[in-house]
């Protein structure tokens, strides 16, 4: 799947559906440690840099907070630890080819026409939800998901039926299938244009009612007429191309479309007013957004040519439907052809639907066999890929980070999360963490270092141990803002080989007290620094003390008088209580004065053991940290 692409963008997802990454180094599920329960451990092989999740749950006690056992929803851990397939709810009809792709790797529950209440009931047992335009994915749905829902797949283009803000807040990724139905929608637009101009639907109904009304259904010609395409995106440009083939003069309005794209199709981009006032036909192809809502209203129709004709295969909500009825009644608008409605389905007695000058279809723009198969495959690949931690080019609510950047930054992702986690555990409670500075030492030019992913991981590392928030790339900035956490980044140029993107990363927390005074720099910030060595994150500095500790397992930081025998004394205390030491590193500022010992331990020492360490006369301060 898309994982092998080197150019597609990527986003970090909610928790993965499997417990381990494959040996394929392109499989990116190691990134999911960014979203799994906070204490998931990683084992790694320096050779191939493949990382494997080895343990699912544990508790963390940090920064004087109570123990927090954090998962993303009740049943996620069960899914992870048992290796069971994820569950994907498909709430609207999806092409068979897509369903079969989904069934290869998931339990697929096709439940169509669910009431909003039933959708909310079902969603808490689903890892992904696939919808078309008929399902409203509201905030209530994300709330009811109880943290388990990781991906919403929109089998189509328009995502106005998904509450994107809520999805982002809940760290749920939204992907869509933006390309497979473009041609179908454009063809439907052209079909409506021609059918409207020649009264095909009305004449058909009349004949079936036993009439032969040749004079009544005289139409208008298309050739030589001006068509204004409103929204020159994928569908709009395909409509323009086809309309030109019919001999129409095509203009377009789109504030965001590049002029050269329009020029390439032979279309002139004009202002909104110019488009409206010069067109004989207006075809709508913009998304429904707060800006485009009811953009066609009494005022707009007043500016149009008398007898203008309107086609809408975009979204009903871009038209004020009452205003359109008034314009049709007055003759300002001669005809309309509508595939989409503010409310779908519209009420049976809708004046618009019943209007004799209006041709309607029930949101059929994307409904060709070909488009439905294409959309189904496109969304199935996106959703399954997303659940597996692969690349997705169609993420709607996550910052896009190019695949090659992800793969290069992979070891730094671990480092930043661990530095964040360590730094926050050095804070003595009380004032709250508000201001964090991250300093990257790099030999690369500023434009050659994309740190969005690393910033998200630092946010995660800092926030997760001290709150019940779950953080991933989708919601990192939102959560940081919500918690009032300011993260500033600085890049310091160093003269090293630019082969490696980053030489070292320093995390500083300002305006806080520390439970380990030696971690405080002169200016008063808690400061720790790390590097990636042979693919493994290392702690290299605590305050102004240099250390060298591989960031695995748990860590005891201990400041003592720099004198012989200290390593032995502390080591003995741990050994006597069966706590296995996996490394020790000592750093000092001035010989025989003070030193810092970083001790990696496999087990968490009990309170009694920690007390004993504190009682060693030369030990001035110490802290136990979970990574
Ligand atoms: N009827 C159907 O079944 C059907 C099928 C496919 C798409 N659609 C709808 O068609 C619309 C277009 O789809 P697309 O795939 O071409 O999307 P797109 O994103 O490729 O194109 C939308 C274009 O609208 C432009 N736009 C945004 N705001 C605008 C504004 N205020 N004024 C003018 N232009 C504006 C954008 O710049 C963009 O170029 C969407 O609303 C989509 O949901 C409907
Ligand atoms: O936005 C879209 O892709 C179209 O409106 C199609 O919607 P549908 O999948 O509900 O047909």
TrEMBL record:
Keywords: Amino-acid biosynthesis, Chloroplast, NAD, Oxidoreductase, Plastid, Serine biosynthesis, Transit peptide
Origin superkingdom: Eukaryota
Pathway of action: Amino-acid biosynthesis; L-serine biosynthesis; L-serine from 3-phospho-D-glycerate: step 1/3
Record EC number: 1.1.1.95
InterPro entries for the chain: ACT-like_dom_sf, ACT_dom, Ado_hCys_hydrolase_NAD-bd, ASB_dom_sf, D-isomer_2_OHA_DH_cat_dom, D-isomer_DH_CS, D-isomer_DH_CS1, D-isomer_DH_NAD-bd
Localisation per UniProt entry: Plastid, Chloroplast
GO molecular function: NAD binding; phosphoglycerate dehydrogenase activity
Catalytic activity as recorded in UniProt: (2R)-3-phosphoglycerate + NAD(+) = 3-phosphooxypyruvate + NADH + H(+)
Biological-process GO terms, alphabetical: L-serine biosynthetic process
Primary location: plastid
Coiled-coil annotated spans: none
Residues of the ACT domain: 555-627
Pfam families: 2-Hacid_dh (PF00389), 2-Hacid_dh_C (PF02826), ACT (PF01842), PGDH_inter (PF19304)
Record bears the keyword Chloroplast: yes
GO-annotated cellular components: chloroplast stroma
Annotated family: Belongs to the D-isomer specific 2-hydroxyacid dehydrogenase family.
Protein name per its UniProtKB record: D-3-phosphoglycerate dehydrogenase
Gene that this sequence comes from: PGDH2_1
